[in-house]
């Protein structure tokens, strides 16, 4: 028997079907159909981690009760191979988002931002001492620069000034050495729309691999990587600042703005590098790659100018 079959048998569940979920994942993921101990037929998600990408299992060990309102985790297996069992949340929120009318997008983003504000308002106590602390480093810049050079050497439509835009933004803003201004709070670390699901009128998060103590703007600037409308990005930015203020989160408007601008540029560079990687793996079309790169470089230039007061 395979690991999921054995583990489900121990729960007095019977595995009826196991379908792999394809994509770039930190391990093996399956949608499984089971008969439970009370003879109910249901579908779940079984995720088995590889050893070098098992951070999510460690996060659940430390924060399982804390994350219960945000995650549909059913069970964690800490023995090798580490694995989790989750409710089947069906389609991620990214599916169909781009086709939604503007007002629907706004309402959906407000719903997500409220959930993130709830997460960022948690008081962890001593548990926080066991979590990693996120800070800006040179990692995304170096990867983004390499990926952009890769794109420019292979395609005539890729513009050399895009490389200069990255270099200018990081150099002028001293991004490698930026110190977060916000008090640190629990952040998801990767809340883009493929990791968010709408079920039973609630927003649920998956993939907590990169959870860490950080500025709450870490999550917001990652969430906004799936938004390709500058007005909607700025609307979400202001709306979230108002949410934090209403919750009494201790951050000034200036510190909020500085954290947002620096983290947004760093995460836009990260996501641009990741989209280029997906393009060369065949997950993104060439036409879409052009659109993504043009938009994200424009955003990096826009926010860099705002941060520099130009």
What does this structure look like?
The protein is α+β, with helices and mostly antiparallel strands and 310 residues long. The protein folds into two domains: 3-87, 2-Layer Sandwich (Phosphorylase Kinase, domain 1), CATH 3.30.200.20; 97-308, Alpha-Beta Complex (Aminoglycoside 3'-phosphotransferase, Chain: A, domain 2). 45% of the residues lie in helices and 15% in strands. The protein has helices at 3-10, 55-63, 102-120, 139-154, 160-173, 217-223, 230-246, 253-280, 286-308; strands at 14-20, 28-35, 41-48, 73-77, 83-87, 185-187, 196-199, 202-205, 212-214. Strands 1-2-3-5-4 form a five-stranded antiparallel beta sheet, sandwiched between helices. Helix 6 (217-223) crosses helix 8. The longest helix is centred in the C-terminal third of the chain and has 28 residues, at 253-280. The chain is globular. The model has no long low-confidence stretch (mean pLDDT 94). It comes from Rossellomorea oryzaecorticis. Pfam families: APH (PF01636). InterPro entries: AGP_Transferase, Aminoglycoside_PTrfase, Kinase-like_dom_sf. This is Phosphotransferase.
